[in-house]
Amino acid sequence: MSTAAVAKSLGVSRRTLMRWVDQLDLELEKNELGHYQFSEEDIERLKQLQNNPTGTPTPANEQTRKGTITQMVSLDENKVDFLTQRLEEVERKVQSKADGVVSYQLLQHRREMEELQSIIKKLELRIEELEQEKLSKKQEFGKDPALVFDQTKAPAKPSRRKGLISSILGF
Fold first, then answer.
1. What gap in Å lies between CA 151 and CA 140, rounded to an integer?
2. Fewest Cβ atoms nearer than 10 Å: which of 8, 25, 92, 141?
3. What is the structure's pLDDT at 33?
4. Which helix (H) or strand (E) holds 17?
5. Cα–Cα distance between 92 and 37 in angstroms, integer?
6. In this structure, is the dihedral angle defined by the CA atoms of residues 117, 118, 123 and 128, taken in order, positive or negative?
7. The whole model's pTM is what?
8. CATH architecture for the domain at 3-51
9. SS3 for 55-98, per residue?
10. DNA-binding region at which residues (predicted)?
């Protein structure tokens, strides 16, 4: 039977059927055009796997995606132990790296805090100096410091005509 006919009889798409063939490593014959030809044995095997992919009864409430074939894989105990040890080693390395990053961040925050504290101390000193200056000026001029006049002369305003000419000529 052709791929399309087998897919139709199983109620799946051709892509799903070809995925099953790849997953199960089925060796199929090809016709003169290079298309797969399924034998009755191949079709029966696919039907069995479609109905019961793992070879064990499935619970009624378990939902599997249509077109999925799962195979049971047996693992060697040595491989499992080796993988478990590797996983624990990687977890230790990750934990160590995370601890290092946190330590670095704490040191960086401590430096920043010390810098901010030194800036605050400088600001406090400057505020005290300004308050001292203000008190000394107040005592120097008496009770009313508003009578102090600035001794500098105000700059002369440019004439309107000169401003107009410079704006036109771009001076």
1. 17
2. 25
3. 83
4. helix 14-24
5. 53
6. positive
7. 0.33
8. Orthogonal Bundle (1.10)
9. CCCCCCCCCCCCCCCCCCCCCCHHHHHHHHHHHHHHHHHHHHHH
10. 3-23
